[in-house]
From TrEMBL:
Species of the source: Roseivirga echinicomitans
Residues in the signal sequence: 1-21
MF GO annotations: hydrolase activity, acting on ester bonds
Protein name per UniProt: G-D-S-L family lipolytic protein
PROSITE patterns reported for this sequence: PROKAR_LIPOPROTEIN
Length: 535
């Protein structure tokens, strides 16, 4: 395989098992669904609300609560959010719910960013002719024109837990500013409280670690401190509990398992024999310099071996990456020059490799790495290191896992503390980790490695009980996968659920409500929701 075909190969790699299942398979699934569920007999659905009052349901959260998917906030995504799905179930006869109002974006494709020539980009779809995700033509979001006082969904894409009561959020986040009751003065929490909720869902905290991970672990400050996380959580939940409303609080899923961190493999570089030989010849100087540093005892032989670059003909060569946690060898390369062990020209050639190494199976390239791998006159990730922002290194994976585990234990601690107060149990904690362990086919070892659970033996056992080692879940005989394939439950951005994923989340909450409040509310039909959008 020639170097110029590398980028095409990478998108094909994303396609294998993910994209190339084709539109025909999705249509076949829809046809099968219709065959299995004939329409003639329609029975009115009823339910009961048990011990919880659902007349005013309010959802508080970030992009998932808002229905952000496929890299954008758009009309169909909003309608498919787990919050809206719950809102519709609560309106079933006998349950007592009322209209669930959202800050409608009124845009078919939504807005995901600015493209070439200042074009407006919308949601992404899977274009099988590339193959890969492709943006549609988008629209800049307009201010919400509806009645802000009657809103139920307070999901704000990009919101961290520390932003929930910050009046400055509207100044930095236009997706809150467009429906804030008083931009610059009001907060998401104050707006939600003003509606006098009788029941709420609260799912915040993902972005307090996810922003760091999506950025390739470049900025440690992107992880919210545990103290700030706890203060914001305790303050907001205490105020919600103080209204007398009952609520559901969600834990955080294992972020590093998201398709955004799994679609591009660490060894995604294909090379034919000629290119492998040429690259090995080019890297002979770097490898010799590393041996020289080891001989001078400036680095260990193990360090030299970790950084050496050697390619072979085949499809699975490791990506060459920048790792900011490595020692900067610049001064030591200078020492080789000073000792006349290398020439000035050779020293200049070593400059890009001061903190580089081949990736290992412990490193997680992010989804956007596929857009730059193999590009350029000196192919990125092959001849020169790919930038730090495109790979979550092993150390950065540990930081992400640790932060998420700490936040989850904090969530449990705050909920337990509030429930131990004079008002009794007013919050139901819904742990999403067992469902994710099942979906991603984890085993006990991975449950431990990813620090799943809530810090107690019982919570860890609950996760392990669902970790069956089988990838995906089966619903009514249909296998659903933890990816953005036609059978997947994630959208094309690799982070947010698609409508089927949202239905699974809604049903997880409904199950908890049956246990906690004795409600009799039917599940959302997961397979009636669409999967990904394919072009």
């Amino acid at each position: 395989m020639t170097m110029k075909n590398l980028k095409i190969y990478l998108f094909a790699l994303l396609a294998s098992g993910v994209l190339l299942t084709s539109c025909d398979e999705e249509e076949a699934l829809v046809d099968q669904r219709k065959a299995d569920n004939p329409l003639p007999t329609v029975t009115a659905t009823t339910g009961t609300n048990g011990s919880v009052t659902l007349t005013k349901y309010v959802s508080i959260g970030n992009s998932i609560t808002a229905g952000y998917m496929d890299g954008a906030l758009y009309t169909n995504g909003q309608a498919s959010s787990f919050a809206n799905l719950l809102g519709q179930q609560f309106q079933i006869s006998g349950v007592g719910g009322t209209a669930f109002n959202q800050p409608d974006i009124n845009s078919v494709n939504g807005y995901s960013g600015i493209g070439p020539n200042n074009s407006i980009l919308g949601r992404f779809v899977l274009d099988l002719s590339i193959p890969g995700p492709k943006p549609t033509v988008g629209e800049v979001p307009a201010a919400y024109a509806g009645n802000k006082a009657q809103l139920n969904n307070f999901g704000v894409p990009g919101m961290r837990i520390v932003d929930i009561n910050d009046p400055a959020l509207a100044g930095s986040n236009p997706l809150y500013a467009r429906f804030a009751s008083s931009p610059g003065t009001s907060t998401v929490l104050s707006d939600a409280l003003a509606t006098s909720p009788t029941f709420y869902t609260y799912w915040l905290g993902n972005n307090d670690a996810l922003g760091y991970a999506i950025g390739g672990g470049v900025n440690d400050a992107a992880i919210t401190s545990q103290g700030n996380f706890q203060n914001a959580l305790a303050s907001s939940l205490s105020q919600l509990a103080g209204t007398g409303a009952k609520g559901v609080v969600m834990t955080l899923p294992p972020l590093v398992l998201l398709p955004y961190f799994r679609a591009v493999k660490w060894n995604a570089v294909p090379l034919d024999a000629a290119n492998a030989t040429a690259l090995n010849s080019a890297f002979a100087g770097l490898n010799a310099a590393l041996d020289g540093l080891a001989n001078f005892q400036l680095i260990t032989t193990a360090e030299a071996a970790k950084r050496k670059v050697t390619y072979q003909a085949g499809a699975n060569n490791p990506i060459l990456m920048h790792d900011k946690d490595l020692e900067d060898l610049g001064p030591k390369f200078d020492a080789l020059l000073g000792a006349q062990a290398i020439t000035a020209a050779q020293r200049a050639g070593l400059e890009p490799y001061r903190q580089s190494r081949p990736a290992t199976s412990s490193d997680l390239p992010v989804l956007t790495a596929a857009t730059v791998l193999g590009t350029g006159a000196a192919p990125i990730g092959v001849a020169i290191p790919i930038a730090d922002k495109y790979v979550l290194s092993a150390n950065e994976v540990v930081k992400t896992v640790t932060a998420r585990a700490t936040f989850n234990q904090t969530i449990k601690g705050v909920v337990d503390l509030i429930n131990s107060g004079p008002g009794g149990t007013v919050i139901t904690l819904v742990d999403v980790q067992p469902k994710f362990a099942d979906l991603f086919g984890l085993n006990d070892a991975l449950v431990t490695q990813l620090a799943l659970g809530l810090g107690t033996q019982a919570s860890i056992a609950a996760v392990k009980a669902e970790a069956d080692g089988v990838l995906g879940i089966k619903i009514n005989g249909t296998n659903l996968a933890p990816d953005f394939s036609p059978n997947g439950v994630f959208s094309t951005d690799g982070i947010h659920p698609n409508p089927r994923g949202h239905a699974i989340i809604a049903n997880l909450i409904l199950s908890a409500m049956r246990t906690a409040y004795g409600v009799d509310i039917p599940d959302v039909d997961v397979l009636a929701q669409r999967g990904i959008l394919v072009q």
